[in-house]
Write a structure and sequence with these properties.
alpha/beta; Rossmann fold; 14 helices; 40% helix; 20% strand; globular; binds NADP nicotinamide-adenine-dinucleotide phosphate
């Protein structure tokens, strides 16, 4: 049995789902892959619980319960980098470091983990979407896995990896990469005002606490940038044109102020919906990248197209030329995202440790 120490940075929605899945998957991982994941540290933004021998399942489930109550994981902890150094001093080997925060600036932690010959699994997209020179070290790195950064657990990264490994050059990538924006677009189809659709998406927990995180398109931009960079295009932010669904005047408002002001966008978006409808089309928030250039924004597509109602990602390649290879199905949600992280952890151990 391989004993694999695991450290989690992030104990929010995905982190809690991951802890539950590690506990519930113990016998499967033991019988199927002969792996025992020993979670040695769980960190939220400021606190942690740490035991180099591994936290017990009861301790892990207690952490999930604490976070659900809005409490901290445990005791105040050192900085992220220092936290990793504490683990290294404990002499742990074959460690899997998991970044399931949405935090910026974790590059030094990932670099240190790789220097220690640890494996790194991320659902956090940020390190992959920074300036290309720094970010390129993390793409196609044998010790880095990041399935859940795109497609919320659907096997998107694995599929692209397979295409690249099988020498089938990818020429074009397209998709509806945001479940939140997909929901809002489907509400617009039904004649619902944009502001009402945004309010409903927020009320149902589909948006980030600040819906502008979704509406601004940056999250979708990061996803398509990850796929494009994996494919070998040295994409910079300036290579991807992003259409924000809110205007610059609304950028500096507080969240309640924004929610009150978002109806100012209803008329303009309503006109676009009506124009599309008159042409038998619907609006969808699409990401597209080809030949090292990309666009992210609202596009009108035929209402009768199968793609109108799919959360999909497609790859057009030499082999999949006249008919693109598509991955589609339910995307995102904390359980599926955490499942993608578990799959990456197993894959890392199988291939590297
Ligand atoms: N939710 C989804 O369906 C989904 C789908 C695909 C990908 N993802 C990605 O998965 C990641 C996690 O999402 P989530 O929904 O679980 O977010 P979340 O609920 O906001 O949880 C984030 C966690 O990270 C912790 N954190 C924040 N800054 C940190 C730092 N500097 N160092 C260590 N921990 C830090 C937070 O600590 P506190 O608890 O102290 O605030 C919290 O525990 C994000 O990158 C997200 O984009 C999520």
């Amino acid at each position: 049995m391989k004993q694999i120490p695991v450290i989690l940075f992030g104990a929010g929605g995905v982190g809690s789902a991951l802890l539950r899945q590690i506990v519930n998957g113990r016998s499967l991982h033991q019988t199927r892959n002969q792996i025992q994941f020993n979670v040695v540290a769980v960190c939220d933004s400021r606190t942690w619980q740490f035991d180099p021998a591994g936290l017990s399942d009861q301790q892990l489930l207690d952490i999930v319960a604490r976070k659900a109550q809005g409490e901290a994981v445990g005791e105040k902890r050192p900085s992220n980098l220092e936290t990793l150094n504490v683990l290294a001093s404990a002499g742990l080997e074959n460690v899997v470091v998991v970044d399931i925060t949405a935090a910026d600036g974790l590059e030094p932690v990932v670099d240190r983990a790789l220097a220690l010959d640890y494996g790194v699994v991320l659902a956090n997209k940020k390190i992959f979407a920074g300036p290309f020179d720094g970010a390129q070290n993390y793409f196609n790195n044998p010790r880095v896995r990041h399935e859940s950064t795109v497609g919320g657990g659907q096997p998107v990264i694995a599929t692209l990896r397979y295409l690249l490994d099988s020498n089938d050059p990818v020429h074009e990538i397209e998709g509806q990469l945001s479940g939140t924006l997909g929901f809002i677009c489907q509400q617009l189809d039904k004649g619902v005002a944009f502001s009402t659709a945004v309010a409903e998406a927020k009320a149902r927990g589909f948006t980030e606490p600040d819906p502008r995180e979704d509406l601004g398109g940056m999250d979708v931009m990061r996803k398509v940038m990850i796929l494009g960079r994996m494919n070998g295009w040295p994409l910079q932010t300036s290579d991807i044109e992003v259409e924000s669904l809110y205007t610059p005047e609304l950028a500096d408002l507080t969240v309640p102020e924004f929610m009150a002001a978002v109806s100012s966008l209803d008329k303009a978006i309503g006109q676009r919906v009506a124009e599309a409808k008159a042409n038998g089309q619907v609006l969808r928030y699409l990401a597209h990248v080809q030949d090292g250039k990309g666009t992210v924004g609202l596009k009108a597509i035929p209402a009768s197209s199968g793609l109108a109602n799919l959360k999909y990602i497609s790859f057009r390649t030499d082999n999949y030329n006249d008919e693109a290879l598509m991955i589609c199905g339910k995307g995102a949600g904390v359980e599926m995202t955490a499942a993608g992280v578990v799959g990456d952890m197993v894959d890392l151990v199988r291939e590297v440790f």
